[in-house]
Amino acid sequence: MNLRLRSASSIIFILISTFILTSCVNDGPAAGKALDALPVRSALVVKVNDWEELSADVNRNAIYQELLNLRAIDEFTEWLEFIPSNLRNSEFWVAAHASGAESYDLLFATEMPEAQSLPDSLDWQSREYSGTDIYSTTVDESEWHVCSFRSVLLISQSRRLVEEAIRQLDTEHSLEEDPDFLKAYKTVNSKDALNLLVNYGEISGLLEYSFPNAPLSFLGNMGTWAAYDLALNVDDMMLSGIHLNSDSSNSWLSCFSGIRGGDFPAQSLLPTNTAQAVMVNVGSFSEYNRNYQEYLRKDDRQRMFSNQIGQLGFSIEEALLSWSGGEFGLISLETSPEAVAQPRIAYIKALDSEMAIESMKIQADADFIENHRNYIIQKSSPKNLLLLGYGRIFKDMISPYYTVHGDYILFGNNLLTLKGYINDLMDGRVLPNQATFTDALDEVSSNAHVRVIHKNPGAAGLVRRLIDQDETDEIDDNLESLSKVAWAITQYKVDDDVSYSQIFAKHQEEYIPEAKQLWALPLKGEVLGRPQFVLNHYTNKNEIVVQDESNTLYLINAGGEVLWQRELDGPIMGLISQVDLFRNNKLQLAFNTSKFLYIIDRNGKDVAPFPVALPHTATAPAAVFDYDGVKNYRFVIPCGTRVLNYSKEGKQVDGWAFTETESAVIRQPQHFTVGTRDFIVIRESSGKVHIVSRRGETRIPTEDLLPDTHNDLYLSVGATTEETRIISLSEGGQLVSLFMNGQVDSTDIDLADDRGEFIFRDGKYIITQNGRLIVKEELHPFNIDLDADLSSPLYFMRNGTPIYGVVINDKDQVWLYGQTGEPLPGLPLYGSSMFTVGEFGQAGVLNLIVGTRDGNLLNYKLE
């Protein structure tokens, strides 16, 4: 990418400072105006009226401070540092203009009636052009050109741009000859520190170098010129002004001429994971549509659309337009940086939602209908129907899925996006519930035709998709700061050929954490067991491994892409372990079904000699032991009354002395280390406990039976070996302790005499029993009655704080609670399987992965 503009800003003012504002004045021509020197095809024009005020406002503005780490803002900071004192009371202009086929440059222009000399510190070369001298020098390997002509100081990195400015000053051909520029310029307030003028005929050419992946062609249909005044406060900024959409420009905004605007009731539909929302309020759709058809005719696109509409085989007026109310729009949702597609939701307000659904039957896919949480979802059969009816705002809605929500017809660009959005609406995860959102809206006019809302960090993710891949690190590295620029709102209120425009940005110091769905992935069936994070040894980042009820095993990356899938002979028993079988820092997956012991590589291929056929049916998950941390793995598998021990070569270990048990072993063997001694605990279904050594020899004789429990065992380390014990929760709700001398003890811990799910973490007893989530610990105990059938509890740490989780399967709800029992914001989440939590893509951010009853895998970001 060759974009000189990016670095030009700082160099200009370095030069000005270094030169002590040199001037090479010719006495002949009359004095000119700096404005007359600016290229007539300038894409962007900035007028600085009061540099001292601008500098002060910028330095106290929180938005500016958050963005200082960005390269472009850092260069602008150098402007502030290098402006010499004798310019700070002068107005000056900066224009951005094409300086070649693939580059843009800045031209600095200010009126300098007094002559000054060039400094001796730089090596100057001069060349005459049109009767005046242009002086050139090199600063930091960049060539710069300076000239004073007709008392206007000109500086640019482009000699051609300086020459063009001289010609304009000589011929008096200038921007002021453009009636739209002049009309826009006359509206600016020179009492404001800075005015900004945008040329919509040229701006897309400027932006495409910074945003090569952006669809910028629409900017040419936004009008001619816009003029803004800048106002900076401590925690916000506002650009307010006008936007010209004359008949000659055939601007899309002209479609709103003569149409009453309004507020935007559809803001109630915006989910908390909104990245961008483009919202349109037309009052009367029939009036807007007449203007829109005329706009298409003038742009010579009506004929192209008419041909496609004619091939539909039904009336688009009847199917889509006849029932349309006064609002429509597009919501882009936050997603992970690795996601291939951007999830989007379209909405159209209906005059009568029942009539709308009835009218849409003629375009519905007869082979698809689905009920999701009592929302009936259908699919649009023809491609690009919304595009043909409403324009390119809906260009990504190819064959969308749709449903009804109140007065609105909602469309998703894929089925899982729509389902996830329905979950957000049903569970109350919408922006109007956030005071910071309503506070930001209060800063702009409530009445408009078009409103565009950006919300970070999702909006930063959208920008990330528009820039060169090699520049995305700058956004990733500064995401925390960018997220504090929480809101940006742009809106237009059209009045004939003028639109009154506002661009508002709001800083928010305290970011409100919330759970957001990033993507959903359809599987062949419902999730079995629990999704698990596994480490990619090449990238050192997490991936997800999960099995569904078709016995298909999947490996999935952070973008929701299936890297591979393979069908197994049956369900995986327990959790998958990662091993480094060849001691080369490359990891494999180890697990068993009832018939085989598997080890597969990261590509989903078997590692020879695995899979190993088991001589007896496995009755519990294999335990993977690496006793000394030297990767000499042992795979210990209960098979009825036998406990088999396999080496990493896939052979039964010689010397394994454990004998056949009296009753079946139906729990996974567990390994504990106390001091320097290893203890392997093997439990029979009868309650008999065996505590053995690595070789399977009895280490501690146990005469007492361990009370029946389906829960895992946990090591509770005491001050001495005698006080150290292995604990669990019995089926009768008592704490069971197995001491190192073989003694078994049961303790009442004030639970019901019923079965419960139990985990022990960081000294905390965490239990679900009889619809309650119970945490027993010294500092923050709590007991929450959820009045539902609960899953086993889950526990993880976030920013050093404990988080407790539980799933209500029959309600498809995932709940998370803080250390004192308060529910986290944005809950419940939709999901029905056991879930897992960990980093998944973005460093320092936790993601929650959960399955649904309809066979989907969901990825939520926990902030």
Describe what you observe in this structure.
With 863 residues, this protein is an alpha+beta fold. The protein is built from 18 helices and 51 strands. The longest helix has 15 residues. The protein is elongated and about 110 Å long.
What is the straight-line distance between the termini? 34 Å
Low-confidence runs of at least 5 consecutive residues: 1-28
Structural class: alpha+beta
How many distinct beta strands?
A: 51
Portion in strands: 35-45%
Output mean pLDDT.
89
3D shape: elongated
Helix content: 10-25%
Rounded to the nearest angstrom, the radius of gyration is 34 Å
Give the topology, please.
Blueprint: H1 5-19, H2 34-37, E1 44-48, H3 51-60, H4 62-66, H5 71-82, E2 92-100, E3 103-111, E4 125-129, E5 132-139, E6 142-149, E7 152-156, H6 159-171, H7 179-185, E8 194-199, H8 203-210, E9 225-232, E10 236-244, E11 274-281, H9 285-298, H10 302-310, H11 316-321, E12 324-333, E13 344-350, H12 353-359, E14 364-372, E15 375-380, H13 385-390, E16 401-405, E17 408-412, H14 415-426, H15 435-441, E18 450-455, H16 458-466, H17 472-477, H18 479-484, E19 485-495, E20 498-507, E21 515-522, E22 527-536, E23 541-548, E24 552-556, E25 562-567, E26 577-579, E27 588-592, E28 596-600, E29 612-613, E30 623-625, E31 634-639, E32 642-647, E33 670-674, E34 677-683, E35 689-692, E36 698-700, E37 714-716, E38 725-729, E39 734-739, E40 744-748, E41 757-761, E42 764-769, E43 772-776, E44 782-785, E45 794-798, E46 801-808, E47 813-817, E48 829-830, E49 836-839, E50 846-851, E51 856-862
Helix pairs in contact: 1-5
